[in-house]
């Protein structure tokens, strides 16, 4: 009896971390609250005109899903993507990522809504309740792109039975384009939906804020240093190769404007030692960390395959005994 596929449904929906389960409970509970008390949306969702007296909605808006479809999709994506990211980042950094990126998204959406009101004088930008976990999910895609190496696999060097390596390579290559692809899909859909203003800004800012955080501020558990300066995680890596010569000069301008002071601080605090970069401050260390991420994914897939095979054998044994 052949074992089920590695990425089968049974293995996909098992092995969730305790932290992700707790966050999933928060999402479901928040959805239940706003369904029982609809007026709670006015206090928990981000309504720019009310943010000044109710500043806490900058923190709570990201965890409020107003539709049943939104809470189901957000909960499943949190559990599935969380069990990939949390073991690599660590629970503390994983939770910090969610908290900080969620707050930055809300601040950016608030500033954008106020700016659009002064430009257009349309009050709907001030009183539209904006909420949802989609910004953090967009950030998870960026995090997945960071930890999975952009590797080229030659099938000629693999044995026919090495299906796990083939799948791992396919997932790796696909994940490199997921953030850009999902953002493009969201932008295209926004042209055909009237409610796009409620979700599109959070997805855009979720993608960009998470990249900024991971690129410059995320603390690496193994080295205690911050950021990922590798070329594989540059802003232009989110786009096709033929666009990079155009994007790199533009990105470098914003890089100097927004992060020049941060880079000066890095040099002042000794990210180099005797002219040689410390671990974590060059592309080699980033490549090694990506390899660890791929190895962690491979080990998890192998463990889930083994558990599925054992379960199948037990079922077969029980069936034979019953006969």
Automatic annotation (TrEMBL):
Topology in membrane: Multi-pass membrane protein
Subcellular locations according to the entry: Membrane
One of the record's GO cellular component terms: membrane
Superkingdom of origin: Eukaryota
UniProt cross-references to SMART domains, sorted A to Z: DUF1751
Residue intervals passing through the bilayer: 23-47, 67-85, 97-119, 165-193, 199-217
Keyword list, A-Z: Membrane, Transmembrane, Transmembrane helix
Gene Ontology biological process terms from the UniProt entry: retrograde vesicle-mediated transport, Golgi to endoplasmic reticulum
InterPro entries per record: TMEM115/Pdh1/Rbl19
PANTHER family: PLACENTAL PROTEIN 6, RHOMBOID-LIKE PROTEIN 19
Protein name listed in UniProt: Rhomboid-like protein 19
Source organism of the structure: Populus tomentosa (Chinese white poplar)
